[in-house]
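Re: folding output
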Amino acid sequence: MNRKIGFFSVFIISFILCGSGAWAMNHEKTYDTGHNQHSGMMMGESMVILGQAEVSGIKGMAHLSDVRKQMTAMGRSETNHFMMMFSDTKTGQPIDTGTAALKVQTPAGETLAPVKLIGMDGHFGADITLKETGEYHFLVGTKLGDGQKRQFHFDYTLK
């Protein structure tokens, strides 16, 4: 059993390292967040910019990517990758230290259990499952490197 877990872990890590590099090369674009440019963000055709919000001197930009095909191939049920990028509104410098968590409210009004957003190459992200069509609400709570707590809110209608 340990050998299977070890192989599975190596497979996942290899898939992420090799697959994300190829995806980034094929879909590299630059997006202006108002204060700075983010290039090579792996923006594929299935990625949606949910918007940006400014809270207490920090700009947060949220993205949602459809990863259903890749997850299904790995036997997983997650449908989307949610990610947030933060920058200082005065300097435009990206912020990638601290903690962030996501709460999702479904179209039926159910609030799902909070999900920790993991720091990943300039953004915070996590794979989530969006099962039903309709309007979702995303609430991101943060405690970034300056120690101040902030909340960012985004909406998205899944069709």
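--- second protein (sequence, then structure) ---
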Amino acid sequence: MGAITLTLTAFTPSPGDSAKGSPTGSAGPAAPSTGLQAPRRDPNDPAAVKGYLERMQRGVARKQTQCTTDKHGGRTTRWCLEPVDPAEMPKVTSKIERAAADPTPPKMCSNPPGKTNYDRFHACYESAGRIVNEDTEQLGAIVKFDVWATLSADSTHWLMQVGVTATNMSTELKEAVPSFIVSLQCDKDTCEIPDPVKSKIVPDAYTYFELATSNPDTAPGDSIKYTNPQVLLTLETENAFPGSGATNPLNDPFDIRCDRETYIGGAGCVYYMGTASAATFYIDYSVPDPKYGDYREVVKNDLYGMVIRDNLNHYGNIKYGKPLHRADPVTQRQNHDKVCSAAILAKEPAGMECDEWPYASSEEGGSKNPRYSCAFLPAAQNGNHGRALSNMYKVNRILPSLNEGGEYIQGDPYWVWVLNAPADSAIPTVKQCSAY
């Protein structure tokens, strides 16, 4: 049968708590505070390329046309599917039929359309096209595609979900009895390939497809794997000539990383490419953490260090575009010892602990950032904050840097967002360790 095939990238909106991903159960045991193992990464790990996290996720649309030939009623028709800018799509005025059980495409798909929108656990892509009669240049139908996928911090299984809507369908195309076939492709052995799903195109109706896939554990010893799945969308007509059609990608695949690192616990997957995939550590300036207790004095030091002390880079502040990156255990200890030195610890008041910003557990910590903040804060609050930060690393599967034997791989990025923060001009001064 003749076929027109396009490739779409998957994507989905955040469900409100980007640290959780899809609700598939526990994320595993809490990460230990010591004894963190170095990630075991392949020499070809994309993270080995300097600045990989700062590159934007791939997803550049290619303006291509795919055609198939249909023979019906004594005549031959060549149907072509032409990609169009979703922003230029005419507004749908007809009522679209939808099955009650069909999920609605995420709002993130069209914000903006024609671009892969994503965060750490969600990715979504909206595309559009029109089917035309190549001989007469008459419009056969206008088609809108939404492709999305939600990953999980505690599972290596996910769904590739596709929603298709066809409007303005001509009588001629209806007589050709068109169908869409949705299938999945990925790099060899990086994701499970389910059977394709086929459904007839019904005018003014929403058609939902889903393909279940996973990242297989096929290579013992490899705890970090990458995959780039793509959805293939094929247009067929009931009377198409056998063997016609073409397979060309509409856009590049998106990037998924799955790991089974024991210090994080369990196994799960994230979107890892680009700073949009960076997780956010939410801490409250005014209200104690309902799970980990009060650490508001630590939050004050974080905010003061981020905004006032570091008046150049503002590491961790999303408004300035420079995230923190999780450091390896050796670097973390070095960062702490450089700021909270023996001389500083000798001044430590009873019941207080030396606390620094940027965090010692970040690559930006220690003397690498000369505009750091060092304060003596209540030991109990410092411990509460440390447990909250460790949990954020775990539930977002944030991998530390690898820095052994001359080999360096950058750690995962993350932002720190202070809720209920005062205006920058009203941030109080935090007494520095050197002032004691």
